Amino acid sequence: MEKPKAAGSMAKETADKIIDYIIKNQMLPGDKMPTEAALTESMGVSRSTIREAIKILSARNILEILQGSGAYISPRRGVPDDPLGLTFIYDADRLAIDLLDVRTMIEPQAAMLAAMHATDQQCSELRGQCSLVERLIRSDTEYEAEDIELHKKICEASGNRILINLSYILHSSIKKTIIATSDALRDNNTYIYHRKIVEAIAHHDPISAYNSMMCHVGGLREYIASKIAERQKTSE
């Protein structure tokens, strides 16, 4: 006689079935999942199993639970919170340099693709987001989250789905970069180059978009590298 499955095993199996449902229906970030009752009926499991399965998928950033509203496809697209294990790399300045090196390899290309493929709507959103970051910088207000959002929108405008997923990983470096530079470049790098990048994209100028992003990310890298070199010289 076959033994009944453990509750945890049943929840994981149901979570896999929900993923199959999402893929089969080609659901996109922001799409709402069927209700618990509908999933219970279609998958032939108890409501408590459905709830556990949804919790598993929420922890994996596949679903997002909005209290009182239901479960939605997460904009994180299943990307883990710290897939590169950055939490346990303790040299903050060196880590910021390493992340900027990777961003230098990827983000100028993303900006170039965005200049080639961005829709009018995306260009309008980029300009609005850029203006928001500028207002926050001018008013000396926390701007990190909106800065990250701007870079995400550039990746989205590229039309490349892998770049969109990578943006969630790479832009964890924005906070580390702000700390590593003591936010000293907010006016003569961030403020200026954000606008140059966005305008190049809006004018569908891929070369300018590429070069402006390279200057933006490269300038941040050089500042931190010179800071590390200066510190090493003083300690000798």
Automatic annotation (TrEMBL):
CDD domains referenced in this protein's UniProt entry, alphabetically: WHTH_GntR
Domain HTH gntR-type intervals: 8-76
Keyword Coiled coil: no
Keyword DNA-binding recorded: yes
Domain of life: Bacteria
Keyword annotations of the record: DNA-binding, Transcription, Transcription regulation
GO molecular function terms listed in the Swiss-Prot or TrEMBL record: DNA binding; DNA-binding transcription factor activity
SUPFAM superfamilies, sorted: GntR ligand-binding domain-like, Winged helix' DNA-binding domain
Protein name in UniProt: GntR family transcriptional regulator
Organism: Megasphaera cerevisiae DSM 20462
